[in-house]
Amino acid sequence: MIEELQIAAKYGQKVTVKLNNNEVITGKAEISGDQFLVKIRTSEGPVWIPIEEIEHVERLVKLH
Question: 9-23 pLDDT, tens per residue?
Answer without folding.
Answer: 999 899 999 999 999
